Structure formats: structure tokens, C-alpha cells
């Protein structure tokens, strides 16, 4: 930290602790997180703190601009609601935790501009972060949202893991920067960042060991999404996906701005995105069943055109005891049989088929995969979904969405509501990142929005970057919701992978997804050791609890996920040198446990089955005794452990 920044930090801390002027403080129940709001030169500003001495974000400007009012400049705090609390407990069908609960201390800040026009900001201080949203108490007729001035200051030298914004996919890497990159020539994956735009989520390390993750939640009808833009190098401004979103109703509320804050474990384990989302719109969730699916596209592009190949993947699902198979694009031009016949065959074998659709929102025309034109309106989608439900289809995968404007968000909601009405599980692909919809619509099983294994088919970039990328995703993209990375690739597609087999196996647990698509060739799974096949055949995809045991973005990650009384631990090495990782039963709250490990062998394409080990929670800490177990990993290696 340079001298200028140190002086600024001291000034901010003095201002906050002295409560100068009309400063208002909101403190989390455990007092670890707080927000301070005050007037500053005609603007209302908020600072976010962790503990007593860490300013995570300083002087965030608050306000919005509409088509009829300036609710950003010349604003004055006129009062607040006084402290109130929210406490919520709910059940998730998918995700990192089945039983979620959280509580926050809150205040609504009342503001007026020089014309007496009102804007409120509701701020909640949770133990794992700050959330806030804008409220217009009295919308005017025909009023639309034009801009938002919220901006996060991230100073020079601070680590930040950011992904260039791709409006139709959210598919790129999350490299670590230490300065505000706003050079249009900067290239991460396959596009240049010409507009200085970054997609959610954004991970920041404001001080060593203290992390924050920025995103948003609770996109409702007629909302647009937002991203971050840094036209000023160290200022990341919330930038709306639409400059004409309607401001409706007797009282308008924006989506929640979400700022998780704490240790890396706090970030990984947080459910803040769903905590502030609307509750489930249905109580009938018995028909929603997370699980593993065989998937044809990765190994056989255009494979769904072949009836015999589709049946081969149904047979794989049956053999591996996976509940689902996904029939991907172009099933409408299938040769040798029909989609309906393939579905009926799967159903007769006890396998639940899912099928693919083009959303008709982005890539259409003669070059685009089909079927097209079947779900481009809610009326047509409802008719089509009712038809395939009658045939025996259990779920749908919908691909090729466009951007984060209001029209697109309403399109997602239309499809979610049509699918829910017809009791079809739904997967979004080529889409936006999760924003809390998995709580509101429990049949939303997963979203792509990730540079995943599919990219081994598209170019050679993933091969050398996969290990570090995989070790970054648990701290970034996968924090905010289910992620359809399609892990479990052991053979090579168009481009090879140089991660180890144990690394690839670990991804099936490390990456959370309500439907976990297994993309490799049937022969790949059939040739696995019995212990690996047993693991994959009984793999849960929805979890009762999740814990981060160790790791750092891009370096390594060890995550434990619990289903019932069993913990599944996955660890990966994101580096090009050998590394030891550890399993600690003490961190899982266990006094004694049996641990079965599948790890790296001497070569990347072989597994080592480590003999069953009994661990006890004692002060000892040796390789095969005590409360922890050391697991050697190859460069770009990994392991899986089952702990009972």
C-alpha cells in the first residue's frame, strides 16, 4: 500500500468512526460487516467495511437517473427508517446448501434532490456481506430507467479477478489483475475489451486475506441486468443492460446489488445471492430431481442427428445409473428414428430424457442449429412444452440468448414460467449468469455462463489454461449459482487436455450444478477403474452443505460437499508444479471418519486408489494418522475423497 493510499484510508476510517455530519451506520448481526452512508459534496456516498480496520470499498456514490428525474446529483439524506431486521430460512432443491438461513440488520435511507423528488436506498448488513437496492416511492407515468451511478473504487495494487463481458455467453477466463485495465487492446480469451466492460461476478482482495465478490440478484419482470465498466481505470461503475427499462407500479424497486465480504471461505460458502431473491413461486417441487445426465455433444457434435448414437448415450445413462440423458441440438432432423421414439425408448428404460431448443433470441437463420421457431413466443412455448411433456420429456436445455437488456430478462422469465407450468426442468445455455432465479424457480437446474469443457471443441486456448482457470471458478463464477461446465472429460476432443484424470474427476464435485452433464464417450466411462465408476454412478448433484477447506484463486481449491452423512471432498492443483493438498476431518466437524481417496498416479492419465484410511480428530497430524491426510498431486493434478 502506497503512502497516498494509506493517508486516504486513515482519513476514511476517521470520518466513519467519528460519524461526521449525518452519517448513518448499518452493522451486521455479528459486527463483522458494516456500511456507512453520508452526504459528500451534494452526493450520497456509502463505504463498506470489514471488521474495524478494513475499508473494502470507499465512497460508493448512490443514485439513479430516469427519463424524467435526476436522482443522483444534488441529493440530500432526509432521514431513515431506523434499524430493522430481516431473518429468512428456506429450502433449496439445488445448490451448495439445502437448508439456507441468513439474517441482516437493515435501514432504508431516505433522500431527496433539490426539487424535492424522492429516492430511497434499502441497505442490509449480513454477516457475509452488504446488499442494497434503490426504491422510487412514487414513479411517474411513462418513466424509464436511464442510468445508475453506483461505482466501486478498486485501488492500484489490489488483486481483482475479472472476466471480460460477452453479452451472449459470459464465457471467458478470470485472470488476476492488479490495476484497472481499461485499454481497448487488452485481450484475455478471444475478444478485445473495447468497451472496458466486465461481467459479474467480480472478485476483489482489498487487503490480504480479505475478499469481496460483487454481483447482483433478484432480476424481476421488466428489470434489466447490469455489468461493471471502468472507463476510469480504478472505478468500476454499475452499467445497465438497457437505457430504457420501465419503472412500473406504485413503488419501483431495483435488483439487489450484492457485495459479499469476508474470508475466501465466507465467499465460497455464501448463499447471499439466493438469500435476497424472491421466494419460490411454487411449493410443488417433488417433480424436480437433480441428477447426472449423459450428454452427446462434446464427443459427437451433430450426434443428435443419429438415432443410434442417441440411444448409445441412453444406454450409458442406464449402465452408469444416471437418471438423465440429454438429446442435444438438431434432434428435429434425426436419421434412423425420431426424437419421440428416442424419448419413449429412454422412458421405457427408466431414464429421463431432456431435449435442446434454440431460444430464437440470438443465433437464428440458416446457419443456426435447430429446432428454431418453436418457442419464440410464450404461447408457442407453452404449446410445445405441453406436447413434449406428453411424449415423456423431463426437461429442456435452451441455448443462444442475447444480452442483459429488459427484453432478454423477460424472455428468460417467460420460459421459466412456461416450463414450470408444464413441469419441465430447465437448463439455460449460452446465457447470462445466475441472479438468484434458482430460489424463485426451483426447476432451473443450472446455467452455463462459463468457459467450460465445451471449449476443448472450439479452439486450443483452454488446454494450457484449464488448470488455473478451474482453480479460479470455485471462487468466482460458481459462487453465485449452479454452473454447467460439463466436467468429467477423460479422453480428448478436438483439442487435448493436460490436466490429470484425477483433476478431471475432482471437477464433478468441485463444480456445483443441479444437472451435472457427463460429456465423454461411453467407452471412457466404461474403461474407468471400478472405484471411479462407483463414484460416478452414485454422485450427488445437490448438496446439504458446502465448505472450503483450502485454496487460492488460480492456485488450488479443496472443497467439501456433504450429502446426508457423507462428505465428498474434491481438490485440484491449478499450477504446473507438484503440490500436496490436505483433507482435514476436524474442519468437517468430525471426530472419527473413514476416508477413501482417488488421486494422481505417476502419469496424468492414470488413477491411484489410496487404501482406506481412518482419521481421528487428535492433535496429531501425520500422513496416515491424526485428523488430516496429505494427498500428493501432480502438476495440474487433483483428487477426490469420500469421507464417512
Mean pLDDT: 94
Terminal residue distance: 45 Å
* Biggest β-sheet strands, sense, barrel: 14 strands, antiparallel
Shape: globular
Low-pLDDT stretches = 1-20
**What share of the residues does DSSP label as strand, in percent?**
35-45%
- Percent range for helical residues? 10-25%
Radius of gyration: 25 Å
Helical segment count = 12
Total strands: the figure is 37
Structural class: alpha+beta
Describe this structure in words.
With 644 residues, this protein is α+β, with helices and mostly antiparallel strands. Strands 7, 8, 9, 10, 11, 13, 14, 15, 16, 17, 18, 19, 21 and 22 form a 14-stranded antiparallel beta sheet that branches. Helix 4 (307-320) packs parallel to helix 5 and helix 6 runs parallel beside helix 7 (406-421). The two termini are 45 Å apart. Residues 1-20 have low confidence and may be disordered.
At a glance:
The chain is an alpha+beta fold and 644 residues long.
